[in-house]
């Protein structure tokens, strides 16, 4: 059972790690907002036939919480992906993968500030270690740059996108209990609605880029693997070994993302990337080294 869960969770992280590569490959071949809206539109078309029977059974719950589900889809899927893909037009996929690993830190801060979740000394130390790692990447190896607010535009957008997903993750505590097919379908509707204004703005401002062949391939990958396959594998993997153990596999995302960026995109791996990766993952491992409740999405 454990081996099966490990395989499923590794597949999950491969898909999510590849999302940074997809965003980078999309630049100039499909615009970020169109990629986001198209991704979730295709995902919805795939999910809906399988989800309808389950949604009929759970419709009273869905109807009561429909507004919440839409907001979660807007924040966690539309806003996160729009700013994430936009950021990758201005920064490297390696930066995108490593900075995405800071997600647990934002969740940690929000739970502490909003809900008074207790904080241990190990968590505080782990937080600051990881924060140094993220800052190292955002300032391109020049920590003194943070004093001058010398953070790359793309990296600033990445941090904003990650903040949106952190808010989504924290808000999952109010998520009604639904079958994953029902939940993903409802969230996909929110993602499409939330992405429409961004796509409309692209069209209005003349920045809309219709997909060419590479754009369509990126769109298909983003719709199928990070959106559906990874979610399904993650949910099943967590069911098999539990949320605490399953959540630790998220630390593989920056490792896979960095590996793909170097091997597939030919991006240059600098010493500060390696140092930052060690700091971020080490800090998260230290912060999570205690029995805790892990939220997944």
TrEMBL record:
It is found in: Membrane. This is DMT family transporter. The chain crosses the membrane at residues 38-55, 67-87, 93-115, 127-147, 153-171, 178-201, 213-234, 246-264, 270-287. Keywords: Membrane, Transmembrane, Transmembrane helix. Its main location: membrane. It is a multi-pass membrane protein. The lineage of its organism: Bacteria, Pseudomonadati, Pseudomonadota, Alphaproteobacteria, Hyphomicrobiales. PANTHER family: EAMA DOMAIN-CONTAINING PROTEIN, INNER MEMBRANE TRANSPORTER. The keyword Cell cycle does not apply. SUPFAM superfamilies: Multidrug resistance efflux transporter EmrE (SSF103481). Belongs to the EamA transporter family. Residues 5-138, 153-286 form the EamA domain. It holds the Pfam family EamA. InterPro entries: AA-Vitamin_Transporters, EamA_dom, EmrE-like.
